[in-house]
């Protein structure tokens, strides 16, 4: 596996794992856990909190600014609770893991964190969109893959049994 070879030839490996709290995003976690155990890597779990354009429009008045701040704080606390629980489970397995919730545009923040952390690998799930869906919605994974400049492990969603 080429990614493993690249990582093993450097200092202690660092893996950045963007999550959004969904089951789909967590699909990459078994792969990351396996790599982290094999490579004794440090894992950085991150959730990027984005504010959408419709939300900004709703909160555009001065009276609504406080409501937006409260909503943002609520989202941050939920993300921190989620990440803290995940990290605790992994720490119980003696894995070196830390976490944070950050605010910004997802792809930009993932690339920025990968560089500031000196990450060796970004591991994330992809929605697996193609064609019109990808054109309309874009793809955070696709943008990270193009911009980050380090190896990216993309896990596709598993087919669900009907």
Describe this structure in words.
This protein is an alpha/beta fold and 162 residues long. The protein has one domain (2-155): HUPs (Rossmann fold, 3-Layer(aba) Sandwich). Helices cover 50% and strands 19% of the residues. It is built from seven helices and five strands. The chain has helices spanning 2-8, 29-39, 53-58, 62-92, 106-116, 131-137, 140-147, and strands spanning 14-19, 42-49, 96-103, 121-125, 152-155. A five-stranded parallel β-sheet has the order 3-2-1-4-5, with helices on both faces. It is globular, with a radius of gyration of 17 Å. Mean pLDDT is 82; it is low at 131-137.
Which descriptors apply to this entry?
162 residues, alpha/beta, Rossmann fold, five-stranded parallel sheet, 50% helix
Oligomeric nature of the chains: single chain
Relative helix content: 40-55%
The largest sheet is: 5 strands, parallel
Q: What fraction strand?
A: 15-25%
Order of helices and strands: HEHEHHEHEHHE
Biggest sheet strand order reads: 3-2-1-4-5
Instruction: Please indicate the count of domains.
Output: 1
What is the terminal separation in angstroms?
Answer: 33 Å
Number of strands: 5
Q: What is the CATH architecture descriptor?
A: 3-Layer(aba) Sandwich
Summing up helix and strand content along with how strands pair, one would put the structural category as alpha/beta
Number of helices: 7
Mean pLDDT: 82
CATH homologous group name: HUPs
Shape annotation: globular
Task: Report the C-alpha radius of gyration, rounded.
Answer: 17 Å
The residue ranges in which pLDDT falls below 50 over 5 or more consecutive positions are: 131-137
> What is the CATH class?
Alpha Beta
């Amino acid at each position: 596996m080429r990614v493993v070879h690249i990582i093993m030839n450097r200092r202690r490996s660092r893996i950045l794992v963007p999550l959004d709290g969904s089951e789909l995003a967590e699909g990459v976690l078994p792969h990351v856990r396996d790599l982290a155990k094999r490579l004794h890597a440090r894992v950085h779990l991150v959730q990027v909190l984005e504010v959408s354009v419709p939300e900004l429009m709703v909160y555009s008045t001065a009276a609504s600014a406080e409501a937006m701040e409260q909503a943002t704080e609520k989202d941050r606390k939920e993300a921190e609770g989620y990440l803290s629980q995940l990290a605790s489970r992994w720490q119980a397995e003696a894995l070196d893991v830390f976490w944070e919730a950050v605010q910004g545009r997802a792809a930009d923040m993932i690339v920025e964190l990968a560089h500031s952390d000196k990450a060796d690998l970004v591991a994330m799930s992809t929605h697996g969109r193609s064609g019109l869906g990808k054109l309309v919605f874009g793809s955070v994974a696709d943008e990270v893959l193009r911009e980050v400049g380090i190896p990216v492990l993309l896990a596709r969603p598993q087919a669900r049994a009907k």
